[in-house]
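Handout, section 4.2: multi-component inputs.
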Amino acid sequence: MPADEFVFPPAPQASLAVQGTDARFPIRRIFCVGRNYEAHAREMGNDPTREAPFFFTKPADAALNTPCTIPYPPQTEDLHHEIELVIAIGKGGRNIAEEDVMDHVWGASVGIDLTRRDLQAEAKKAGRPWDWGKAFDNSAPIAPLKPIADVPSVEQGRIWLAVNGTVRQDADLADLIWSVREHVAILSHSMSLAPGDIIMTGTPAGVAALVEGDVVTGGVDGIATLEVTIGPRA
Ligand code: MN
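Output:
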């Protein structure tokens, strides 16, 4: 549709940087997996038995490319970091078989599922949706994507996060309760996946609060590293 047929100019396409090229990966949607590492499920007070994975979403324009500075978000006193392996879908599909999942994956990276933990806790208690705790502005800083052909593994490798140089989250992708092949296949039975979809695959234990001025670093070995600074309140 020509631009002059819209009542105002459409928003710019949300996108992620790609390692080794100036080309960008256009983001369609951001899916997030809940409670996908046993130790994190325990620290949040949940039974880590292998219940079916569940998902929530963030808007595409919640994604920011790292390195970046994010203003401390409004309406929270408990902003938490959650370091996560990020999967980028390049080929859509539905009812994808586990053995075919990697044919749909364009690349991988590392990101932070920033969480207003106090708002999430209120929502859980009231039986309300998690959106206000999870899907706020700037809530998904993500490092440049690595094309999947160059990714050594999405099934093992250290995943870590440090705040001001002190490591807080330190685990291995092998600890994922539901592997990439498994949770992408399951997701594709509920939603038709499309090129541009991003999946944040869940966080290991060690989530904790951030304050203004914190410098957050993190990574997944062999895939990507990131740096995010928490700025003053907007
Ligand atoms: Mn998360």
